[in-house]
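chain below, 135 aa
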Amino acid sequence: MNRGFVKAYLATLVPFIVLDGLWLGLVAQTFYQSQIGFIMAKNPIWAAAIVFYLLYVAGMVVFTVQPSLNAGGLGRAAARGAFFGLICYATYDLTNLATLQGWPIAVTIVDLIWGASVSALSTVAAVWFLSRRSK
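prediction:
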């Protein structure tokens, strides 16, 4: 693994973890509990969550951060991040909506907006930070 990828990975991981942690832990916790509390685990399987974060951030680096560093700037970084987040979160939420009885459409809509937003913000933060470091 090259140093550039590791730097980009860490520059993406930090804002994503912070933002998603604030979202899940403070902002939207009551919303999710009210909407899908009937299927939420009392204790999350942290290993699965960690693997998700590690893989998701790697995908962001490959598909949003590195291409934006190579050509684009912050506007393009935001667009790439938002599109990547929308696709990834849609995979989960639209599959749940299609296959799980009682899956609320409100959760799907909120998650799609959140996935696009957190991915765009994390991509922009990483590209901004890495661009500043290279000057």
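The chain has one domain: 3-133. The chain has five helices and no strands.
thats it, cya
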